[in-house]
Amino acid sequence: ALPVLNEHRQLKFVFLPEGEDPDTLVRAQGKQAFQQCLDNAAPGLELLFSRLAEGLDLQTLDGQAKLAGLLNPYIAKVQEGLLKDLLRQRMADLTGAGRQPQQAVAQRRAPLNPGISNLSDRLLTLVLQQPGWWSGVPADIRAELVADAGHLGVLGEIIKYIDETVGGGDNGHTVEQIDAEEILVRWSDHPDAAKLLQRARRTSEIDPEAQRAGFVEGMGRLRQMLRAQQRKAALSSLKETPNLEELRKYWQLRGS
Asked: Does the predicted TM-score (pTM) go above 0.70?
């Protein structure tokens, strides 16, 4: 269930008395008893943290390292977004692992410039209508955009989901197996779900092959524009905090 959780979709566990299922509990104690169990449902992620921490001394480095090692594989399965950020922060509070400087967090969540936002907006409409076109984007561009999915809002979430589900076309799945309706269902509880549906139903008089070529070309331009913005942010960070680590980040981005 972890890959489909986000800040809008939660998981809870209901614990019934030993030997009972919902039917027997209602028959024996009434609907109110079952409703009380539902009201007392345990948040799934809170339960995960507490169960994994059982028996560990979190006052010691060994205990903190052990918990971080146990948590990391689970957190890795959660899609990029606010929920994953909160899970990382919770792990950092408990173990000290993965703690990020506030400057780095602010840089990663810096708002997109208008050019990137406008391009992302157009590409979001196209990927909602034709998710299979993602497989036509060159593999290196796909990999970089998936890595940067956290910067791209809903577009990032969707292309990451497509890439992880069908492997961007590299794992034997065909374009026809990428279901646009499934994407809409998965994002049905998103605050902008109605707008996403409108985008998916939007019609165009542009030739489909021209649209497809524009989609592929647009993804390439999006990658370039993101890199330019990241280089600018890294240079600004280097000027504010001149050190070897910031210099290394800047030169890595400059070479990309």
From this structure: no
